[in-house]
Amino acid sequence: MKPLAYDLDYENWKEWMKEQNQPEFRARQVMDWLYIKRVVSFQEMTNLPKVLRQTLEETFHLKSLRIIARQVSQDGTVKFLFGLYDQHAIETVLMRHDYGISVCVTTQVGCRMGCTFCASTLVGLKRNLSSGEIVAQVLMAQKYLDQSDERVKSVVVMGSGEPFENYGPTMRFVRMINHPRGLNIGQRHITVSTSGVVPNIYRFADEDWQVRLAISLHAPNQELRSKLMPVSRKYPLADLMDACRYYLEKTGRRITFEYALIGGKNDQKENAHELGKLLQDMNCLVNLIPVNYVPERNYKRTLRSQIFDFKRILDSYHVNSTIRREHGHDIDAACGQLRAKYGQ
Asked: Biological process GO annotation list (predicted)?
């Protein structure tokens, strides 16, 4: 299998051109063709010498993803099912907001975290994606938008998989889409989510950038969280909170806590009070998410009136919160619904 061209960043391309006895500006030209013009073959790179184009074609490949299916929601959300080179499949979601278009990318084929409300984990973990395979998801979404002269403004790393279990490729992906010769997406327009892999929260805090962090919390105490999210058995809630405080002290940036409200499980008034006490001294935003339907789970949605009651209690502790606007629920593209259905 030839390496994927999108796995190389600008510095890699400069080094590769040097090895080919090519001038450095050829690296800039290749990046321009890949990320600005978004070509699908090396032969389209017409300002490169024919011999170099042939060498590129013999050395790398560009077609890392193929569209198996594309669904468009009534609200404009688009869900892509992409086939990979090894017959696995992943899902990527394009969402339209008042502030612009965002893309939710996947970092692993499947997931091993075992969160009980999420479809992504039902088949377990098959493999990690490379940085280029993650980059290609954004590029494919951008190519779709090119038809209407629209642009991806923000990226959320919240699709299938646990990004902090595929830390190196995920961080490389972030730097590649942020690079001015890449897609040039601002760091503050990129959010990475984790279910609570504590050691890599510390690593993320030490990265020299403005990329945002989101924590999938979903419970206000260790006992309940360990039932809903097995990751909490390895990385207890107290350790997770310590890591979050380190992040806040080190970066000065606000953390978003994702909280899926599950009827009768974690949505009671006492849960709201406990969550308010847990977070009242932290610079954070709680994103309240009505749990989404997954056929294999028997979870019920919290009543809308009860969601507002929950929010009012958090307000009383001066904890900022918002109720997430749903995207793509009718095409199983909402939070917790992504899975690789192809071939299963």
From this structure: rRNA base methylation; tRNA methylation
